[in-house]
Amino acid sequence: MLYKTLFATTAAATVLAGAVQAQEHVLKYAHFQSADMSSPKHAAALAFESCVEGKTSDAIDVQIFPASQLGDGPTVMEGLELGTIQMGVVHDGPISGTYQPFSVLAMPYIFDDQAMAWSVMDGEFGDALFEDMREQTGIRAFGVADNGVRNFTNSVRPVAEPADMEGLKIRVQTAPVWVNLVESLGASATPVPWPELPGALQQGVVDGQENGVTNILNASLYQHQDYVSLDGHVFSWHAYMMNEDFYQGLSGDQQTAVNQCVDIAITIHRGMTAAQDANAATILAERGLEVTPVSPENKDKFREAAQPAVREYIVGEIGEDWPNRLDEAVQAYRDQY
């Protein structure tokens, strides 16, 4: 009887030890979109979870926290710095609040299309930016996926050229560069955290906002807006980031698995968001918005009004190095074609 008891106790301890060993690392993964498969961030997160747990035989336990459950963008960035959040997919504004050079990507009307934007961010420019970010913050950026081509929506009037922006109250991300962008076009800018945006639109705190199609759909922003202007002022990004100490605590094989699975997640995320951007006019019209295409001539007016002012602001904040590097990367892409 004693032998059987000892055997059962030893067996149970062995099973428990095996379970503990199997889950060596808990990876808390934060993003802000809703927890459904129509959300590019969540579809990509689920793919990452399945991929990593499969490749590591569950040694990494990926726990996904969607819909800002772990806090807004600045809170997640702080968690990534401290290591209380191991992985986050965060948009440009909060990133530039933690790592200022990221604000260079708020330069308006700089990319012609997704092909150019992806090439620049996947090339030497993106690599250098991410390495500098890792050194300065202790946050590793693996790469970026689309946060959507940003367009203006509002509840007051159609916007076809900068003069139509005059007097509009526009919500912007919580980083000064976005305030500068909107004010350069004659509107007034009000920083509002993402979770509070639907309420701000519904209550009339702001007349409008600027976002890509994915975010407009995901948060049902179209319910409180009447007009959308397809000016495409900024190619916005979500960065896939991890606390560097956590990453270095993984084995070589586990790091390889994470790298490979992030690549898969980014590919899914980009594809879903880019498809929505390409069909923006149809998708938003079906949601009841009056769509205003912006002609090339009027887009030049937007560029001439916004780009010099925003560039001057960015240079004043971070110097000329990163803006110049971005210009060079864009020109190098154009020289290929």
From TrEMBL:
UniProt keyword annotations, A-Z: Periplasm, Signal, Transport
InterPro entries per UniProt: DctP_fam, TRAP_DctP, TRAP_DctP_sf
Pfam families noted in UniProt: DctP (PF03480)
Signal peptide segment: 1-22
Subcellular location: Periplasm
Cited Gene3D superfamilies: Bacterial extracellular solute-binding protein, family 7
Protein name: Sialic acid-binding periplasmic protein SiaP
Highest taxon listed in the record's lineage: Bacteria
Gene Ontology CC entries for this record: outer membrane-bounded periplasmic space
GO biological process per UniProt: transmembrane transport
Similarity-based family: Belongs to the bacterial solute-binding protein 7 family.
